[in-house]
Amino acid sequence: MKFHKKLITWYLQNKRSMPWRETTDPYRIWLSEIMLQQTRVAQGLPYYLSFTKTFPTVFDLANAKEDEVLKLWQGLGYYSRARNLHATAKYVAHELGGVFPDNYKDLLKLKGVGDYTASAIASICYNEVVPVVDGNVYRVLSRYFGVKTPINSTAGIKEFKELAVTLIDHKDPANYNQAIMEFGALQCKPKKPYCIVCPINEGCEALKTGKVDELPVKLKKQKIKKRYFNYLVFSINNNKTIIQQRTGNGIWKGLYEFPLIEDEKLSIETIKTNSIFKNLLVNKDFEIVPYYEEPLVHKLSHQHLYTRFYIIKLPEVSEINGVQKTVDFQEVHKYPVPILLGNFIDEFFK
Question: What is the DSSP pairing of strand 303-314 with strand 296-299?
Answer without folding.
Answer: antiparallel
